[in-house]
Amino acid sequence: MVWSTISVLLLIFGGGLGVWAYHSLDFAEPTTDIIDIPSPDSVSITPTQYAAAWYVPVAGALFAVQVLTGALLAHYYVERTGFFRIEEMLGIDLVSLLPFATVRTWHLNLAILWITTLWLAGGSFSLGCSAIAIRRGRLRERRCCLDCS
């Protein structure tokens, strides 16, 4: 439990350090000669991209539940009745309520669900970049990611 806590704290600290370094230190942006990449402020977000952004918190919640079921499985492997003393504090028998095979199945299925959710979000978000919109019976190609026209 101690090493798990230390590793999670180091992961959060490292991510925060990366965000701080990106915003406070002056890194030169890479330049390209082939493609003119617009700044993020000049690109507008389409309704499809806005709708796709709602998939990300759903995938985050699925991932959090998968992590919790993984922690429960790790405790099932080591000791059946020692999941953070929930049995003692709340009086809930987790072994009979959530059998090992059920938790293992949910753990694997949740991985498939959150990965699929992010896959759909990425596909829906990229549709907004190069979408073919049908308006008034005509096809109109949209190129908003590369040249913002």
Descriptive tags:
149 residues, mainly alpha, two-stranded antiparallel sheet, 6 helices, 2 strands, 62% helix, 5% strand, elongated, disordered C terminus
Would you mind describing this structure in some detail?
The chain is mostly helical and 149 residues long. Helices cover 62% and strands 5% of the residues. The protein has six helices and two strands; from the N terminus they run ααααααββ. It has helices at residues 2-24, 47-52, 55-78, 86-90, 94-97, 100-129, and strands at residues 132-135, 138-141. Helix 3 (55-78) runs antiparallel to helix 6. The longest helix has 30 residues, at 100-129. The radius of gyration is 23 Å and the shape is elongated. The protein starts with a helix and ends in an 8-residue tail after the last strand. The relative contact order is 0.13. The model is unreliable at 132-149 (pLDDT under 50).
